[in-house]
Amino acid sequence: MAALLKGASVAKAITAELVERERKLESLGVVPTLAIVRVGEREDDLSYERGALKRCEKVGISCRRFLLPADVSQEELLRVVAEVNEDPSIHGCLMFRPLPAHLKEDMVAAALLPKKDVDSMTSASLLSTLSGLGAGYAPCTAEAVLAILDHYGIDLDGANVVVVGRSLVIGKPVASMLLARNATVTACHTHTRDLADVCRRADVVVAAAGHACTLGADAVRSGQIIIDVGINWDAQAKKLVGDVDFEAVEPLVDAVTPVPGGVGAVTTAILARHVICAAEEACGHVVRTMQ
Ligand SMILES: Nc1nc(=O)c2c([nH]1)NC[C@@H]1CN(c3ccc(C(=O)N[C@@H](CCC(=O)O)C(=O)O)cc3)C=[N+]21
Predict the structure, then answer these.
(1) 147 and 260 assigned to the same domain
(2) Does 6 fall in a domain?
């Protein structure tokens, strides 16, 4: 039986620190504010939105939602981004991705002011995460993975870590952040040969492929720590599931994060931290505690 690496205790510790910082901001007359931009009604976006709203309420962050239909035009979406940029009372912006296929995501991302980019949409933020230089915010989910590993005292120095998935939202940035912590990182993807064999050699597996049941019993062994980043809608069971076949994997490994209640729960705490940082920056009260 594996230890369950629940996100709640990690998120709770982060939230407690943020409540203090929010009080300080409020005493300066600043209400930290997050803009949430959602196009359409994808289940994973809705789940993130529910989690983010709840977390922000706990911290004292005000949320302004911009809800757009799935067939919104590029011009209309860019108009919303301009509104977010120009409103000084908004400190950070979370726009759910991927956007529907008819929208040019890179153009929309480029329109957002980097200082309001709390989830690493812009190339400025992404470059600072990949290079370890600069001042941008890392993608919340990637930072959440590191926060969970740190909270549960999992040593990354020299550890063999396999990351499954190479997206710009999670796979690539989390691989860079793990490298910066001196892990030996193997980046796997759809063309990787013998994925299960590669995973079995790891000390830590970060599953971020975006498909349910990417990793089953054949990909794991005892002694391993499994971090499941996946948030997939199981239409049959009508629930969210991870990238790992939890029932098959849980009896075999040492520790695993649940879905929901694992990485997702911490992602919202990191998002809240970035909004507080952005609000502090905006009012010149610079106390960066970014990792
Ligand atoms: N730009 C962008 N960045 C993302 O990181 C991103 C995204 N777009 N689009 C959608 C997916 C999905 N995702 C979730 C994060 C947290 C929860 C979360 O807080 N889940 C709660 C459950 C909340 C509930 O369902 O009520 C939990 O796991 O405990 C869920 C899903 C981030 N994604």
Answers:
(1) yes
(2) no
